[in-house]
């Protein structure tokens, strides 16, 4: 395996349907402008409550992408 160098960014995905969808939304959107993404780490999960029910999920991700040579 060659030596690689990564940069980290932090993004937040949202969804009214759950944390998994919030993660997918964040990764899919970021992949349109960030090249060479290799991994992610969930660092925070939170949500919005409305009328005593969960209205929206928010997931904070760290995303690592490879720097090009």
From TrEMBL:
Q: Which Gene3D superfamilies match?
A: Flavin-binding protein dodecin
Q: Would you tell me the protein name for this molecule?
A: Dodecin flavoprotein
- List, alphabetically, the Pfam families matched: Dodecin (PF07311)
